[in-house]
Amino acid sequence: MVRDELLRLRASAESEAATLARDLQALFTASRDSNADDEHDPEGATIGFERAQLTALLAAARERMAEVDEALRRVDDGTYGICERCGRPIAEERLTARPFARHCIACA
Ligand SMILES: [Zn+2]
């Protein structure tokens, strides 16, 4: 059950990362074609900003994928839902809100 939820999260993070990577690639191509100059062209500055945003979003999506993978590993280990710091069970509500949480609320 938890596994299904995690796999679903993994898939959505993965498709998000793929979309962002594609957008980023398109942006690179567009900025190369227009030969935009980040320093002097206002258009170039916008592209630079957009690129920074997409890069940050992509990094976040990839990090989420890694977190979910880690959670899946803990499901296999039988350590899922147990705080990595104090060894106590992580509250149900917390796991519902953050299925890949590694620490209980007290330790987070
Ligand atoms: Zn704890």
From TrEMBL:
A zinc finger (dksA C4-type) spans 83-107. Pfam families: zf-dskA_traR. It comes from the Bacteria. PROSITE patterns: ZF_DKSA_1 (PS01102), ZF_DKSA_2 (PS51128). Residues 78-108 form the Zinc finger DksA/TraR C4-type domain. Keywords: Metal-binding, Zinc, Zinc-finger. It comes from Paractinoplanes rhizophilus. The lineage of its organism: Bacteria, Bacillati, Actinomycetota, Actinomycetes, Micromonosporales. This is TraR/DksA family transcriptional regulator.
